[in-house]
Amino acid sequence: MRSSRDGNGSDVLVIGGGIIGLVTAWRAAQRGLRTAVVDPEPGGGAARVAAGMLAAVTELHYGEQLLLGLNVASAARYPAFVAELEAASGQETGFRACGTLAVALDSDDRAHLRELHALQQRSGLESQWLTGRECRRLEPMLTPGVRGGLRVDGDHQIDPRRLAAALLTACERAGVAFHRDWVERLTVIRDRAAGAVLAGSTELAADQVVLAAGSLSGRLPGLPDEVVPPVRPVKGQVLRLTVPAARRRTSPFLTRTVRAVVRGSQVYLVPRENGELVVGATTEEMGWDITVTAGGVYELLRDAHELVPGITELPLTETRAGLRPASPDNAPLLGPTALPGLHLATGHHRNGVLLTPVTGDVMAELLAGGELPEMARPFTPHRFSSAASVRQEQPA
């Protein structure tokens, strides 16, 4: 590979400073590649809204068994990844090996969970069926109406905001250069991605460019039509409540992540060690709208109250909405595109936090060695080679 070592040049230019862009930059820098990140607010993006469930088992959906392998591989890497990142950054990430409890509130939900349990077992995953009484013994705050549930001790959690902050520090310590600006357009020279031009007309040259801009990835000006990633925004509203310190000293409100299906919608409660309780999340096909709505807040509180009645006694400390980057098959786009020099790391949908470790490893291997690892090949952008026929409009 040629090297852009002069002026504003770099070996790798990452467009997008969310957790996926940051982990890609950190791992690339560790491989000795001169790396730069362009983002007006690195460490922001969807991580500011995500709950941080590392739920490879309880997030299993029919038809997504191929994605399951990547999710499980990434979940298995998390403990070592967190230990390395915390040592490199000197910051904690809020990683908790607390497990998850998925419960059913009526007979239909119970039948659905039974089917999911069977699918998990056929897929070689570990989960334990519990009666309603056993669920309430684990989590006494649950409603007495719980009909049964699945205990998954291997599905954990992390605080995405602290994860993003730690990755940002680790990148800075590894020598990653940050350009806090918008990208005006991708630079293409002789049919090859060669860097980017920033909003202030600064030109950045690079041997390789990684597009990791989340739901905005399809909006980068200068992308040839044939490589525009088919990524769309899926809105999610999330609430944060606080369990008062006095209440925590008496007994924990919840000891693990609890989730259920209420009226056909997923609801989850993620308890942090600092007393924060994250409740989410809506799934809305609303384009680029990130308005927090009264209806969204009401529905989340209503469903959470049905699951854990005592939640209405807690202070509501934050409401927020964000955009998940979704691909047509809900799996990420990882690897080289039809434009030489341009790679994608986007489209992670609801699994961005979970897939952070494996995405960093996959992209570093590609950037340093030129080959996409075997486990990532089913997720190459080429599977959507004809999907980028319509460019998305620029945001207002």
How would you describe this structure to a colleague?
The protein has 396 residues and is α/β, with parallel strands linked by helices. It folds into 2 domains: 1-97 and 157-230 and 329-388, FAD/NAD(P)-binding domain (3-Layer(bba) Sandwich); 98-156 and 233-326, D-Amino Acid Oxidase, subunit A, domain 2 (D-Amino Acid Oxidase, Chain A, domain 2, 2-Layer Sandwich). Helix content is 27%, strand content 26%. The strands form 3 sheets. Strands 1, 2, 8, 9, 10, 11, 17 and 18 form an 8-stranded mixed sheet that branches. It has an 8-stranded mixed sheet with strand order 5-6-4-13-14-15-12-16, with helices on both faces. A hairpin with a 4-residue loop joins strand 14 and strand 15.
Main attributes of the structure:
single chain, 396 residues, alpha/beta, FAD/NAD(P)-binding domain, 18 strands, disordered N terminus, disordered C terminus
SSE inventory with pairings:
Layout: E1 10-15, H1 19-30, E2 35-38, E3 53-54, H2 65-89, E4 100-104, H3 107-122, E5 128-131, H4 132-138, E6 148-152, E7 156-157, H5 160-173, E8 177-179, E9 183-188, E10 193-198, E11 203-211, E12 232-242, H6 245-250, E13 257-262, E14 265-271, E15 276-280, H7 294-307, E16 316-326, E17 333-336, E18 342-346, H8 356-369
Parallel strand pairs: 1-2, 1-11, 2-8, 4-13, 11-18
Antiparallel strand pairs: 3-7, 4-6, 5-6, 9-10, 10-11, 12-15, 12-16, 13-14, 14-15, 17-18
Helix pairs in contact: 1-5, 1-8, 2-5, 2-8
